[in-house]
Design goal:
Shape: elongated
Distance between the termini: 37 Å
Helix content: 40-55%
Number of strands: 4
Radius of gyration: 20 Å
Number of helices: 4
Mean pLDDT: 83
Structural class: alpha+beta
Length: 158
């Protein structure tokens, strides 16, 4: 497999590929070069199979235990990709230092938005319909992320 050839861990689903690599702070340029080379090899393989990679849709997240995280960009397929402050993975927003603040803020905003929309049409809804809407639009969203947030302490910003 191409990522293993470059010493990377990978996760594939649908039309997305996630590449993982850990390194020491002084080695970020070498790590970025390895990831870029891996993406270039994947691009070449895909082109030989009449598929296409969009390097401009690539997101980079450098997670760091020290502040601030590195700002080393990637350069896959001749495209420079600057590191992001947060990235979305299966609906979860991850921050550079992994406190999940961006995710909690986004989840809270979506739930309050749904509550405001339900409240605006409350007069036209029966109690049963209101409960159904709350369960489908809010509770289900909270349940989806419960396993991620379980055990998250205030120490990590949750």
């Amino acid at each position: 497999m191409i990522p293993e050839k470059h010493g990377l861990l990978s996760h594939f689903y649908a039309d997305d590929v996630q590449l993982y690599l850990s390194c020491h702070r002084g080695q970020t340029a070498v790590c970025a070069s390895r990831v870029s080379a891996c993406i270039d090899d994947i691009t070449t393989w895909m082109a030989s199979n009449r598929l296409m990679v969009y390097p401009a849709k690539t997101d980079v997240l450098w997670c760091s235990t020290s502040q601030p995280p590195p700002d080393t960009p990637l350069s896959p397929a001749g495209t420079t990709v600057q590191p992001s402050v947060s990235v979305r993975n299966l609906g979860v927003f991850f921050d550079v230092d992994l406190p999940l603040t961006a995710h909690v803020n986004q989840l809270t905003a979506r739930c309050y938005s749904s509550l405001r929309r339900i409240e605006s049409c409350q007069r036209a809804l029966s109690r049963t319909a209101s409960v159904t809407l709350i369960n489908s639009l809010i509770v289900s969203r909270l349940d989806y992320y419960n396993s991620l947030l379980a055990g998250c302490s205030n120490k990590f910003g949750c």
